[in-house]
Protein backbone atom coordinates (compact mmCIF):
# COMPACT_ATOMS: atom_id res chain seq x y z
CA UNK A 1 0.00 0.00 0.00
CA UNK A 2 1.43 3.37 -1.01
CA UNK A 3 1.79 6.04 1.67
CA UNK A 4 0.16 9.42 0.94
CA UNK A 5 1.17 12.27 3.25
CA UNK A 6 -0.89 15.44 3.20
CA UNK A 7 0.57 18.71 4.45
CA UNK A 8 -2.19 21.08 5.55
CA UNK A 9 -5.47 20.27 7.25
CA UNK A 10 -7.76 22.73 5.49
CA UNK A 11 -10.34 22.18 2.74
CA UNK A 12 -7.94 20.83 0.11
CA UNK A 13 -6.00 18.68 2.59
CA UNK A 14 -9.03 16.98 4.12
CA UNK A 15 -10.60 16.43 0.68
CA UNK A 16 -7.39 14.80 -0.55
CA UNK A 17 -7.25 12.61 2.57
CA UNK A 18 -10.76 11.27 1.91
CA UNK A 19 -10.03 10.62 -1.78
CA UNK A 20 -6.68 9.02 -0.90
CA UNK A 21 -8.34 6.63 1.56
CA UNK A 22 -11.00 5.75 -1.02
CA UNK A 23 -8.23 4.96 -3.54
CA UNK A 24 -6.49 2.63 -1.05
CA UNK A 25 -3.57 4.79 0.03
CA UNK A 26 -2.20 4.67 3.55
CA UNK A 27 -3.05 8.28 4.48
CA UNK A 28 -1.43 10.57 7.05
CA UNK A 29 -2.23 14.27 7.40
CA UNK A 30 0.05 16.78 9.14
CA UNK A 31 -0.66 20.43 9.91
CA UNK A 32 1.84 22.72 11.65
CA UNK A 33 -1.07 24.84 12.87
CA UNK A 34 -4.29 23.86 14.60
CA UNK A 35 -6.86 22.01 12.50
CA UNK A 36 -10.42 23.37 12.66
CA UNK A 37 -12.85 21.24 14.68
CA UNK A 38 -15.10 20.60 11.67
CA UNK A 39 -12.15 19.11 9.74
CA UNK A 40 -10.98 17.03 12.72
CA UNK A 41 -14.47 15.56 12.98
CA UNK A 42 -14.35 14.57 9.27
CA UNK A 43 -10.88 13.00 9.64
CA UNK A 44 -12.01 11.07 12.71
CA UNK A 45 -15.16 9.91 10.97
CA UNK A 46 -13.09 8.50 8.07
CA UNK A 47 -10.47 6.97 10.39
CA UNK A 48 -7.63 9.06 8.96
CA UNK A 49 -4.46 9.49 11.04
CA UNK A 50 -3.38 13.09 11.57
CA UNK A 51 -1.27 15.41 13.70
CA UNK A 52 -1.51 19.14 14.41
CA UNK A 53 0.79 21.79 15.85
CA UNK A 54 3.87 20.16 14.27
CA UNK A 55 5.34 18.34 11.29
CA UNK A 56 6.95 15.07 12.51
CA UNK A 57 9.61 14.46 9.88
CA UNK A 58 9.93 10.67 10.37
CA UNK A 59 6.19 10.37 9.61
CA UNK A 60 6.46 12.57 6.53
CA UNK A 61 9.77 11.88 4.80
CA UNK A 62 8.84 8.19 4.32
CA UNK A 63 5.96 9.13 1.99
CA UNK A 64 5.56 7.73 -1.52
CA UNK A 65 3.59 10.85 -2.47
CA UNK A 66 2.98 14.21 -0.76
CA UNK A 67 0.09 16.59 -1.36
CA UNK A 68 1.05 20.10 -0.28
CA UNK A 69 -1.57 22.67 0.65
CA UNK A 70 -1.32 25.76 -1.61
CA UNK A 71 -0.63 27.91 1.47
CA UNK A 72 2.70 26.19 2.26
CA UNK A 73 5.62 28.02 0.58
CA UNK A 74 7.65 26.11 -2.01
CA UNK A 75 10.77 27.27 -0.19
CA UNK A 76 9.79 25.65 3.14
CA UNK A 77 12.62 23.48 4.53
CA UNK A 78 10.38 20.40 4.76
CA UNK A 79 9.38 20.70 1.08
CA UNK A 80 13.05 20.99 0.08
CA UNK A 81 13.92 17.86 2.12
CA UNK A 82 11.13 15.88 0.45
CA UNK A 83 12.33 16.90 -3.00
CA UNK A 84 15.94 16.03 -2.10
CA UNK A 85 14.66 12.57 -1.09
CA UNK A 86 13.01 12.17 -4.50
CA UNK A 87 9.47 12.31 -3.11
CA UNK A 88 6.91 13.71 -5.56
CA UNK A 89 5.19 16.80 -4.08
CA UNK A 90 1.92 17.60 -5.87
CA UNK A 91 -1.14 19.81 -5.49
CA UNK A 92 -4.67 18.71 -4.71
CA UNK A 93 -5.86 19.40 -8.27
CA UNK A 94 -3.10 17.16 -9.63
CA UNK A 95 -4.02 14.33 -7.24
CA UNK A 96 -7.77 14.56 -7.81
CA UNK A 97 -7.46 14.79 -11.60
CA UNK A 98 -5.87 11.32 -11.61
CA UNK A 99 -9.14 9.76 -10.45
CA UNK A 100 -11.75 11.28 -12.76
CA UNK A 101 -12.60 11.09 -16.45
CA UNK A 102 -14.99 14.04 -16.25
CA UNK A 103 -14.55 17.09 -18.47
CA UNK A 104 -12.58 19.81 -16.65
CA UNK A 105 -13.04 23.54 -17.24
CA UNK A 106 -10.18 25.21 -15.35
CA UNK A 107 -10.04 28.97 -14.75
CA UNK A 108 -7.07 31.01 -13.58
CA UNK A 109 -5.97 34.65 -13.63
CA UNK A 110 -4.93 37.35 -11.19
CA UNK A 111 -8.47 38.76 -11.03
CA UNK A 112 -11.95 37.54 -11.87
CA UNK A 113 -11.41 33.81 -11.23
CA UNK A 114 -14.22 33.43 -8.70
CA UNK A 115 -16.73 35.45 -10.70
CA UNK A 116 -15.93 33.64 -13.96
CA UNK A 117 -15.94 30.18 -12.36
CA UNK A 118 -19.27 30.89 -10.66
CA UNK A 119 -20.76 32.22 -13.91
CA UNK A 120 -19.43 29.21 -15.85
CA UNK A 121 -21.00 26.87 -13.30
CA UNK A 122 -24.29 28.79 -13.51
CA UNK A 123 -24.39 28.46 -17.32
CA UNK A 124 -23.66 24.71 -17.28
CA UNK A 125 -26.15 24.13 -14.46
CA UNK A 126 -28.83 26.01 -16.43
CA UNK A 127 -27.98 23.77 -19.40
CA UNK A 128 -28.93 20.75 -17.27
CA UNK A 129 -25.42 19.29 -17.13
CA UNK A 130 -24.16 17.16 -14.24
CA UNK A 131 -21.60 19.72 -13.05
CA UNK A 132 -19.74 20.63 -9.83
CA UNK A 133 -17.90 23.81 -8.84
CA UNK A 134 -14.71 23.57 -6.76
CA UNK A 135 -10.95 24.02 -6.52
CA UNK A 136 -9.98 27.34 -5.01
CA UNK A 137 -13.65 28.12 -4.38
CA UNK A 138 -16.00 26.26 -2.04
CA UNK A 139 -15.57 22.48 -1.92
CA UNK A 140 -12.21 20.91 -2.74
CA UNK A 141 -11.87 19.19 -6.11
CA UNK A 142 -10.64 16.01 -4.37
CA UNK A 143 -13.73 15.76 -2.16
CA UNK A 144 -16.01 16.28 -5.17
CA UNK A 145 -14.21 13.45 -7.00
CA UNK A 146 -14.38 11.21 -3.91
CA UNK A 147 -18.03 11.70 -3.07
CA UNK A 148 -19.76 12.62 -6.35
CA UNK A 149 -20.13 11.20 -9.82
CA UNK A 150 -19.94 14.36 -11.92
CA UNK A 151 -19.52 14.60 -15.68
CA UNK A 152 -18.17 18.19 -15.61
CA UNK A 153 -15.99 20.10 -13.16
CA UNK A 154 -15.60 23.88 -13.15
CA UNK A 155 -12.43 24.65 -11.18
CA UNK A 156 -11.07 27.95 -9.96
CA UNK A 157 -7.30 27.50 -9.82
CA UNK A 158 -4.57 29.63 -8.25
CA UNK A 159 -0.96 29.90 -9.38
CA UNK A 160 0.08 28.06 -6.18
CA UNK A 161 -2.05 25.07 -7.19
CA UNK A 162 -0.59 25.14 -10.72
CA UNK A 163 2.97 25.20 -9.35
CA UNK A 164 2.58 21.60 -8.20
CA UNK A 165 0.94 19.91 -11.19
CA UNK A 166 2.52 17.12 -13.23
CA UNK A 167 -0.10 15.75 -15.64
CA UNK A 168 -3.13 17.95 -14.89
CA UNK A 169 -4.83 18.57 -18.24
CA UNK A 170 -8.09 20.54 -18.46
CA UNK A 171 -10.34 20.07 -21.49
CA UNK A 172 -10.97 23.81 -21.47
CA UNK A 173 -8.47 26.18 -19.82
CA UNK A 174 -9.27 29.87 -19.28
CA UNK A 175 -6.57 32.45 -18.50
CA UNK A 176 -8.30 35.74 -17.67
CA UNK A 177 -5.38 38.12 -17.05
CA UNK A 178 -1.97 38.37 -15.41
CA UNK A 179 -1.14 41.31 -13.15
CA UNK A 180 1.47 41.48 -10.36
CA UNK A 181 0.29 39.53 -7.29
CA UNK A 182 1.93 37.15 -4.77
CA UNK A 183 5.32 38.20 -6.15
CA UNK A 184 6.93 37.50 -2.77
CA UNK A 185 6.43 33.77 -3.55
CA UNK A 186 8.05 34.12 -7.00
CA UNK A 187 11.36 35.79 -6.07
CA UNK A 188 9.68 39.12 -6.89
CA UNK A 189 9.73 38.11 -10.56
CA UNK A 190 6.63 38.99 -12.60
CA UNK A 191 7.85 36.62 -15.34
CA UNK A 192 8.01 33.65 -12.94
CA UNK A 193 4.49 34.40 -11.71
CA UNK A 194 3.22 34.71 -15.30
CA UNK A 195 4.76 31.39 -16.33
CA UNK A 196 3.12 29.80 -13.31
CA UNK A 197 -0.27 30.91 -14.65
CA UNK A 198 0.53 29.47 -18.09
CA UNK A 199 1.04 26.02 -16.57
CA UNK A 200 -2.74 25.65 -16.93
CA UNK A 201 -2.17 24.84 -20.63
CA UNK A 202 1.19 23.04 -20.55
CA UNK A 203 -0.28 19.51 -20.69
CA UNK A 204 -3.07 20.33 -23.11
CA UNK A 205 -3.05 18.88 -26.63
CA UNK A 206 -4.86 19.48 -29.92
CA UNK A 207 -8.14 18.08 -28.56
CA UNK A 208 -8.26 20.74 -25.80
CA UNK A 209 -9.11 24.45 -25.82
CA UNK A 210 -7.17 27.39 -24.38
CA UNK A 211 -9.18 30.61 -23.91
CA UNK A 212 -7.16 33.77 -23.25
CA UNK A 213 -7.48 37.55 -23.08
CA UNK A 214 -6.15 39.31 -26.17
CA UNK A 215 -6.25 42.63 -24.27
CA UNK A 216 -3.93 41.54 -21.45
CA UNK A 217 -0.33 42.74 -22.13
CA UNK A 218 1.49 40.16 -19.99
CA UNK A 219 -0.53 37.27 -21.42
CA UNK A 220 0.31 38.37 -24.96
CA UNK A 221 3.99 38.84 -24.10
CA UNK A 222 4.26 35.27 -22.77
CA UNK A 223 2.14 33.85 -25.63
CA UNK A 224 4.73 35.06 -28.16
CA UNK A 225 7.39 32.86 -26.56
CA UNK A 226 5.26 29.75 -26.01
CA UNK A 227 4.27 26.85 -28.21
CA UNK A 228 0.69 26.11 -27.21
CA UNK A 229 -0.69 22.83 -28.55
CA UNK A 230 -4.34 23.38 -27.59
CA UNK A 231 -6.84 25.03 -29.92
CA UNK A 232 -6.67 28.75 -29.09
CA UNK A 233 -9.77 30.87 -28.49
CA UNK A 234 -9.01 34.53 -27.72
CA UNK A 235 -11.56 37.04 -26.41
CA UNK A 236 -11.25 40.82 -26.62
CA UNK A 237 -12.88 44.19 -26.16
CA UNK A 238 -10.61 45.88 -28.71
CA UNK A 239 -10.43 43.90 -31.96
CA UNK A 240 -13.80 43.48 -33.67
CA UNK A 241 -12.54 40.78 -36.04
CA UNK A 242 -12.37 38.15 -33.27
CA UNK A 243 -15.02 35.48 -32.61
CA UNK A 244 -15.46 36.49 -28.96
CA UNK A 245 -15.77 40.25 -28.86
CA UNK A 246 -17.54 43.06 -27.00
CA UNK A 247 -17.69 46.82 -27.48
CA UNK A 248 -19.50 49.54 -25.52
CA UNK A 249 -22.84 48.46 -26.92
CA UNK A 250 -22.84 44.80 -27.98
CA UNK A 251 -21.52 41.40 -26.88
CA UNK A 252 -20.77 38.81 -29.60
CA UNK A 253 -19.83 35.15 -29.76
CA UNK A 254 -19.49 34.35 -33.46
CA UNK A 255 -19.44 30.84 -34.92
CA UNK A 256 -20.59 28.91 -37.98
CA UNK A 257 -24.03 28.36 -36.43
CA UNK A 258 -25.12 31.99 -36.27
CA UNK A 259 -23.47 32.89 -32.97
CA UNK A 260 -24.82 34.96 -30.11
CA UNK A 261 -25.39 38.70 -29.94
CA UNK A 262 -26.74 40.69 -27.00
CA UNK A 263 -26.66 44.24 -25.67
CA UNK A 264 -24.07 45.02 -23.00
CA UNK A 265 -26.77 46.51 -20.75
CA UNK A 266 -28.50 43.11 -20.70
CA UNK A 267 -25.52 41.51 -18.87
CA UNK A 268 -26.13 41.05 -15.16
CA UNK A 269 -22.51 41.87 -14.23
CA UNK A 270 -21.35 45.49 -14.29
CA UNK A 271 -17.96 46.92 -15.26
CA UNK A 272 -15.59 46.36 -18.19
CA UNK A 273 -13.69 43.62 -16.38
CA UNK A 274 -16.94 41.72 -15.92
CA UNK A 275 -17.79 42.02 -19.61
CA UNK A 276 -14.39 40.43 -20.19
CA UNK A 277 -15.17 37.67 -17.63
CA UNK A 278 -18.56 37.09 -19.29
CA UNK A 279 -16.88 36.77 -22.69
CA UNK A 280 -14.52 34.11 -21.33
CA UNK A 281 -17.35 32.07 -19.78
CA UNK A 282 -19.60 32.39 -22.85
CA UNK A 283 -16.73 31.32 -25.13
CA UNK A 284 -16.17 28.19 -23.02
CA UNK A 285 -19.91 27.41 -22.91
CA UNK A 286 -20.08 27.72 -26.70
CA UNK A 287 -17.13 25.31 -27.07
CA UNK A 288 -19.06 22.87 -24.85
CA UNK A 289 -22.06 23.17 -27.21
CA UNK A 290 -24.40 24.82 -24.70
CA UNK A 291 -27.43 26.25 -26.53
CA UNK A 292 -27.12 30.00 -27.29
CA UNK A 293 -30.46 30.83 -25.62
CA UNK A 294 -29.23 29.23 -22.37
CA UNK A 295 -25.91 31.12 -22.49
CA UNK A 296 -27.76 34.39 -23.09
CA UNK A 297 -30.33 33.82 -20.33
CA UNK A 298 -27.57 32.80 -17.87
CA UNK A 299 -25.54 35.94 -18.64
CA UNK A 300 -28.67 37.99 -17.91
CA UNK A 301 -29.82 36.36 -14.66
CA UNK A 302 -26.51 35.50 -12.95
CA UNK A 303 -26.22 36.92 -9.42
CA UNK A 304 -22.87 38.52 -8.59
CA UNK A 305 -20.44 36.66 -6.35
CA UNK A 306 -20.56 37.63 -2.69
CA UNK A 307 -17.87 40.22 -1.76
CA UNK A 308 -17.25 41.07 -5.42
CA UNK A 309 -18.97 44.36 -6.42
CA UNK A 310 -21.93 43.18 -4.36
CA UNK A 311 -24.75 45.72 -3.98
CA UNK A 312 -25.54 45.81 -0.25
CA UNK A 313 -28.17 48.55 0.11
CA UNK A 314 -29.24 52.02 -1.00
CA UNK A 315 -29.84 54.30 1.99
CA UNK A 316 -30.96 57.94 1.61
CA UNK A 317 -29.93 57.82 -2.03
CA UNK A 318 -26.44 56.46 -1.22
CA UNK A 319 -25.45 53.11 -2.72
CA UNK A 320 -23.24 50.82 -0.57
CA UNK A 321 -21.11 48.28 -2.47
CA UNK A 322 -19.11 45.43 -0.93
CA UNK A 323 -16.01 44.58 -2.98
CA UNK A 324 -14.03 43.13 -0.07
CA UNK A 325 -12.58 40.45 -2.36
CA UNK A 326 -10.54 43.21 -4.07
CA UNK A 327 -7.36 42.32 -2.19
CA UNK A 328 -4.97 43.82 -4.75
CA UNK A 329 -4.61 47.08 -6.68
CA UNK A 330 -5.75 45.60 -9.98
CA UNK A 331 -9.05 44.41 -8.51
CA UNK A 332 -9.66 47.87 -6.98
CA UNK A 333 -8.83 49.38 -10.40
CA UNK A 334 -11.68 47.41 -11.98
CA UNK A 335 -14.08 48.41 -9.22
CA UNK A 336 -13.28 52.12 -9.50
CA UNK A 337 -13.39 51.94 -13.29
CA UNK A 338 -16.97 50.61 -13.17
CA UNK A 339 -18.30 53.36 -10.88
CA UNK A 340 -20.59 55.93 -12.52
CA UNK A 341 -21.37 58.11 -9.45
CA UNK A 342 -19.16 60.09 -7.01
CA UNK A 343 -17.34 57.69 -4.66
CA UNK A 344 -16.43 57.50 -0.99
CA UNK A 345 -13.69 54.88 -1.24
CA UNK A 346 -12.88 52.54 1.67
CA UNK A 347 -9.30 51.31 1.21
CA UNK A 348 -6.55 49.72 3.30
CA UNK A 349 -5.44 46.62 5.16
CA UNK A 350 -2.31 44.53 4.84
CA UNK A 351 -0.26 46.07 2.02
CA UNK A 352 1.35 43.59 -0.42
CA UNK A 353 3.86 46.04 -1.87
CA UNK A 354 1.11 48.03 -3.58
CA UNK A 355 1.78 50.61 -6.29
CA UNK A 356 -1.24 52.94 -6.33
CA UNK A 357 -0.22 54.91 -9.44
CA UNK A 358 -2.56 53.08 -11.80
CA UNK A 359 -5.54 54.05 -9.62
CA UNK A 360 -4.82 57.78 -9.77
CA UNK A 361 -6.87 58.66 -12.88
CA UNK A 362 -10.01 57.10 -11.38
CA UNK A 363 -9.36 58.49 -7.90
CA UNK A 364 -8.91 62.02 -9.30
CA UNK A 365 -12.05 61.85 -11.45
CA UNK A 366 -14.43 59.82 -9.28
CA UNK A 367 -13.42 59.79 -5.58
CA UNK A 368 -14.25 62.75 -3.33
CA UNK A 369 -13.38 61.12 0.03
CA UNK A 370 -11.24 58.24 1.29
CA UNK A 371 -11.86 56.22 4.45
CA UNK A 372 -8.82 54.17 5.45
CA UNK A 373 -9.55 50.80 7.09
CA UNK A 374 -6.33 49.33 8.49
CA UNK A 375 -3.67 49.39 11.18
CA UNK A 376 -1.05 51.11 8.99
CA UNK A 377 -2.54 53.71 6.67
CA UNK A 378 0.47 56.01 6.23
CA UNK A 379 1.28 54.85 2.69
CA UNK A 380 -2.29 55.44 1.47
CA UNK A 381 -2.51 58.85 3.15
CA UNK A 382 0.88 59.98 1.83
CA UNK A 383 0.07 58.87 -1.70
CA UNK A 384 -3.46 60.21 -2.08
CA UNK A 385 -3.48 63.33 0.14
CA UNK A 386 -2.22 65.64 -2.68
CA UNK A 387 -5.34 64.72 -4.68
CA UNK A 388 -8.07 64.05 -2.08
CA UNK A 389 -8.74 66.66 0.58
CA UNK A 390 -10.93 64.44 2.76
CA UNK A 391 -9.09 61.35 4.09
CA UNK A 392 -10.06 59.81 7.42
CA UNK A 393 -8.46 56.92 9.31
CA UNK A 394 -10.30 54.03 11.00
CA UNK A 395 -9.13 50.75 12.48
CA UNK A 396 -12.49 48.98 12.88
CA UNK A 397 -15.53 48.39 10.69
CA UNK A 398 -18.01 50.25 12.95
CA UNK A 399 -16.10 53.56 12.74
CA UNK A 400 -15.36 52.96 9.07
CA UNK A 401 -19.02 52.66 8.03
CA UNK A 402 -20.04 55.54 10.33
CA UNK A 403 -17.41 57.85 8.77
CA UNK A 404 -18.36 56.84 5.22
CA UNK A 405 -22.04 57.45 6.04
CA UNK A 406 -21.24 60.95 7.34
CA UNK A 407 -19.26 61.83 4.22
CA UNK A 408 -21.87 60.58 1.74
CA UNK A 409 -24.51 62.65 -0.04
CA UNK A 410 -27.54 61.65 -2.08
CA UNK A 411 -26.32 60.10 -5.36
CA UNK A 412 -22.94 58.96 -3.98
CA UNK A 413 -21.52 55.44 -3.80
CA UNK A 414 -19.73 54.07 -0.72
CA UNK A 415 -17.33 51.50 -2.15
CA UNK A 416 -15.45 49.01 0.02
CA UNK A 417 -12.69 47.94 -2.40
CA UNK A 418 -9.62 47.75 -0.14
CA UNK A 419 -6.79 46.90 -2.62
CA UNK A 420 -5.14 45.15 0.34
CA UNK A 421 -5.31 41.85 2.19
CA UNK A 422 -7.52 41.79 5.26
CA UNK A 423 -5.35 40.01 7.81
CA UNK A 424 -4.33 43.04 9.87
CA UNK A 425 -7.86 43.39 11.28
CA UNK A 426 -9.89 40.41 10.03
CA UNK A 427 -9.67 36.64 9.51
CA UNK A 428 -10.17 37.05 5.76
CA UNK A 429 -11.89 39.15 3.11
CA UNK A 430 -15.16 37.27 3.82
CA UNK A 431 -15.24 38.44 7.44
CA UNK A 432 -14.37 41.99 6.36
CA UNK A 433 -17.19 41.98 3.79
CA UNK A 434 -19.77 40.39 6.09
CA UNK A 435 -19.08 42.87 8.91
CA UNK A 436 -19.32 45.74 6.41
CA UNK A 437 -22.73 44.48 5.26
CA UNK A 438 -23.93 44.11 8.86
CA UNK A 439 -22.95 47.69 9.71
CA UNK A 440 -24.49 49.11 6.53
CA UNK A 441 -27.80 47.37 7.26
CA UNK A 442 -27.86 49.02 10.70
CA UNK A 443 -27.93 52.44 8.96
CA UNK A 444 -31.34 51.89 7.38
From TrEMBL:
<dbReference type="InterPro" id="IPR013221">
    <property type="entry name" value="Mur_ligase_cen"/>
</dbReference>
<keyword id="KW-0573">Peptidoglycan synthesis</keyword>
<keyword id="KW-0067">ATP-binding</keyword>
<keyword id="KW-0963">Cytoplasm</keyword>
<dbReference type="GO" id="GO:0005737">
    <property type="term" value="C:cytoplasm"/>
</dbReference>
<keyword id="KW-0131">Cell cycle</keyword>
<keyword id="KW-0132">Cell division</keyword>
<dbReference type="GO" id="GO:0071555">
    <property type="term" value="P:cell wall organization"/>
</dbReference>
<comment type="function">
    <text>Cell wall formation. Catalyzes the addition of glutamate to the nucleotide precursor UDP-N-acetylmuramoyl-L-alanine (UMA).</text>
</comment>
<feature type="binding site">
    <location>
        <begin position="109"/>
        <end position="115"/>
    </location>
    <ligand>
        <name>ATP</name>
    </ligand>
</feature>
<dbReference type="InterPro" id="IPR036565">
    <property type="entry name" value="Mur-like_cat_sf"/>
</dbReference>
<keyword id="KW-0961">Cell wall biogenesis/degradation</keyword>
<comment type="pathway">
    <text>Cell wall biogenesis; peptidoglycan biosynthesis.</text>
</comment>
<dbReference type="InterPro" id="IPR036615">
    <property type="entry name" value="Mur_ligase_C_dom_sf"/>
</dbReference>
<protein>
    <recommendedName>
        <fullName>UDP-N-acetylmuramoylalanine--D-glutamate ligase</fullName>
        <ecNumber>6.3.2.9</ecNumber>
    </recommendedName>
</protein>
<dbReference type="GO" id="GO:0009252">
    <property type="term" value="P:peptidoglycan biosynthetic process"/>
</dbReference>
<dbReference type="Pfam" id="PF02875">
    <property type="entry name" value="Mur_ligase_C"/>
</dbReference>
<keyword id="KW-0133">Cell shape</keyword>
<feature type="domain" description="Mur ligase C-terminal">
    <location>
        <begin position="307"/>
        <end position="420"/>
    </location>
</feature>
<feature type="domain" description="Mur ligase central">
    <location>
        <begin position="107"/>
        <end position="285"/>
    </location>
</feature>
<keyword id="KW-0547">Nucleotide-binding</keyword>
<dbReference type="GO" id="GO:0008360">
    <property type="term" value="P:regulation of cell shape"/>
</dbReference>
<comment type="similarity">
    <text>Belongs to the MurCDEF family.</text>
</comment>
<dbReference type="InterPro" id="IPR004101">
    <property type="entry name" value="Mur_ligase_C"/>
</dbReference>
<dbReference type="GO" id="GO:0005524">
    <property type="term" value="F:ATP binding"/>
</dbReference>
<dbReference type="Pfam" id="PF08245">
    <property type="entry name" value="Mur_ligase_M"/>
</dbReference>
<dbReference type="GO" id="GO:0051301">
    <property type="term" value="P:cell division"/>
</dbReference>
<dbReference type="InterPro" id="IPR005762">
    <property type="entry name" value="MurD"/>
</dbReference>
<dbReference type="Pfam" id="PF21377">
    <property type="entry name" value="MurD_N"/>
</dbReference>
<dbReference type="GO" id="GO:0008764">
    <property type="term" value="F:UDP-N-acetylmuramoylalanine-D-glutamate ligase activity"/>
</dbReference>
<keyword id="KW-0436">Ligase</keyword>
